[in-house]
């Protein structure tokens, strides 16, 4: 197990009162037996997959866009937080932690040097007027324990974390977003490239004559850019789904701002969505790295396959160097590159292959 989580478990065991553990996108492989008495531990997460695995393990977990107001104020002796990738989230969580910590309660912050952990620790120390103990636990990682003494210092700049704002007017659409959403303050270049290929994709749709192209689902919808662009291609039923609570809030707001009817569903890779769709659009979360992250890629492709009506098709955009085709061939008979600008490629997936179990 990751050294940071080993340290967190030690901190839980050393504390006899209520504990709050903040969980975001970082993988957390815990077994309840490692934690001792779990009845005094509350988890809070903004990710559906994390909530599912924690609650399946019988642990208490709040799922929200890090809304700490729903938790007992000044109610925790210990708050544990492995810092997130985005600065606004980290500042928001530190500000919120100050509200839920008891006087003299401890905030434990951990993370990598390249993630700015030392700067976050300094800022939190000042904000909490804290006694600080900081320790290097590996080549890259640091952990700090801050004893909350309440100060009159202004809270950390969280870029108005809770506020939804209009980030852009694009093709007559009003795009509403907020910190905490993937690429929250811009239109993703890959997604814009996918939209450019939609007319060609629609021409090739091969639905039977009595099927009218009507329904579309956006898998990993973010703040809803792709989804809210779909009515211009004739879609009437709009569904978006994402794992991240911030994205769910923003995507609902984007639909509302454009007077669009649609459903936005919080789910892990569309798990639990039984409806079928004529089209799946997707800008998956795995295009940033240098390889196709195994399990997540398969899950997005499998979901796309499962969610389509027969004769339907999916359109994915990924970084040009991602070899998604080899995996996609396990799920679809037709895997065609619609466009490639050397940075991104847009792939059309059609002709569902039966699952192994159905063969
Ligand atoms: C590259 S972004 C695309 C966002 C949006 N479609 C756009 O065009 O701006 C990928 C999205 O996938 C979401 N995501 C990551 N893991 C997920 C999962 N397990 N299930 C559902 N969505 C997930 C992320 O929260 C993010 O919003």
Feature tags:
single chain; 9 helices; Rossmann fold; DNA_methylase_N6_adenine_CS; about 350 residues; 7-stranded mixed beta sheet; alpha/beta; nucleic acid binding; Small_mtfrase_dom; Class I SAM-dependent methyltransferase; 16 strands; about 30% helix
Q: Hey, roughly how much beta strand do the residues contain?
A: 25-35%
Give the biggest sheet. Answer: 7 strands, mixed
H/E element sequence: HEEHEEHEHEEEEHEHEHEEHEHEE
- Average pLDDT for all residues: 92
Structural class: alpha/beta
Radius of gyration: 22 Å
Low-confidence stretches: 288-292
Helix content: 25-40%
- Count the domains: 2
Mind telling me the CATH class of the largest domain?
Alpha Beta
Written description of the protein model:
- This is Class I SAM-dependent methyltransferase.
- Residues 173-347 form the Methyltransferase small domain.
- Residues 38-132 form the Methyltransferase small N-terminal domain.
- It holds the Pfam family MTS.
- With 359 residues, the protein is α/β, with parallel strands linked by helices.
- Helices cover 28% and strands 30% of the residues.
- The chain has 2 domains: 3-147, 3-Layer(aba) Sandwich (Rossmann fold); 165-358, 3-Layer(aba) Sandwich (Rossmann fold).
- It has 9 helices and 16 strands.
- A hairpin with a 3-residue loop joins strand 15 (332-340) and strand 16.
- Mean pLDDT is 92; it is low at 288-292.
- The structure holds S-adenosylmethionine.
- S-adenosylmethionine binds at residues 49, 182, 188, 191, 218, 220-222, 225-226, 242-244, 247, 268-269, 283, 285.
- The site of S-adenosylmethionine has 18 residues, from helix 6.
